[in-house]
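[agent] plan:
  1. take the single chain provided in the ticket
  2. run structure prediction with default settings
  3. attach structure tokens to the ticket
  4. add a short note for the reviewer (M.T.)
[agent] executing step 1
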Amino acid sequence: MNRRQFLAASGTVLGAGLLPASAAPVLKGRAEHVISVWLGGGMGQIDTFDPKRRGDPARKLAGSYYDSIATAVPGVRLCEHLKNLAPLMDRVTAVRTVNHDVIDEHAAATNRMHTGRPISGTVTYPSLGSIITHERGPTADGAPPYVLIGYPNVTRGPGFLGAKAGYLYLTDTSQGPAGLSRPDGISASRQTRRESFLRDLQREQPATTDTRLRDYDAAIAQSLKLSGPEFTRSFNLADEKGDLRARYGGEFGQRCLLARRLVERGVRFIEVSHNLNFLNGAGWDVHNAGILKQHELIRELDTAVATLITDLENHRLLDQTLIVITTEFGRPPEFDSGGGRGHQGSAFTCVLAGGGLKHCGAHGETNELSKKIVANPVSVPDFFATIHAAVGVDYTKYLYDGDRPVPVTDNGKPIAALF
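[agent] step 2 finished; step 3 output follows
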């Protein structure tokens, strides 16, 4: 082979190696909204969506804390306390092989499961909700793109994307966001005068190129717009039929109902927190005696999410709305000295429902004790890429922190079987 032949052959081989990566189609779903349910503390997959043989804390026999039941999908079983979700699993995929390397630190794991990557000392990464907000905005004029039903936290925030990709938050479904309500004594006419004064002051100021100030002005304008009756009506849950509200259940269920109403109003991304009204004193972080009432949390989750799925379906919104259930890590099959469980990041379950995906009940397989991954591992970037793809965000794209390129999903690849 002479030099010319060698170069020609090398070019052919190199081109063949590069072509599949560059030509791989970017998957794109048809969902328009995301309702993200956050289970703070670490939901134990072996006691919920990936049950195994029955264990016994008294005998230190590793295994599930509860019995399992069959579902609408043959071969897919759930914990006995997920009885309302079981017949709906043909609209659901429990991704049983999510994994990361954070074990003992709740804050770091919470950050990982909101931003999709490790904490950086030089970059404040945006959350999943903020990226989707940045890329897609609200679906209707007069609605915020991102609402957090729970306490604010930097892990949920916009990071380097700025205030325009931030969230509106509330902690009580009995009233709307406090920041949108006029203080007592401020009448509608007085509010109108204040807004007029603000516009006069803004006109007197020279135009600024500082993006932080421009984002702040945009946030003020949006807040004033959202304080009107059209949007705040979304928070009046009394408009809903009493039997539907009862089916959703307590405070967490009412948050899920509010999430459906916000989807109707045009909100793109809603996070609903399930770690503010602990029923067992410990929430999903079931060390020691915290596990004794874990079943109450599971039942509350089951009731609310099953009702949310059927309610969205009745409103013809399920295919447009991706429901996501995440937590910071899972729990090991072994029991600790107090009969509860520790932390496990090597294999745990996150859940997807609706959103127009091709659901299969469960994706991925763990071993006989849900401790190690046997088939189809899904990294956190892969899971995030699946969410982005479902809602039409290009997961191969780069965002920029100044002139520094940052991949949207830390180079994750979606679960292709769901599209």
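[agent] step 4 note for reviewer: Residues 103 and 408 are 24 Å apart (CA to CA).
[agent] ticket updated
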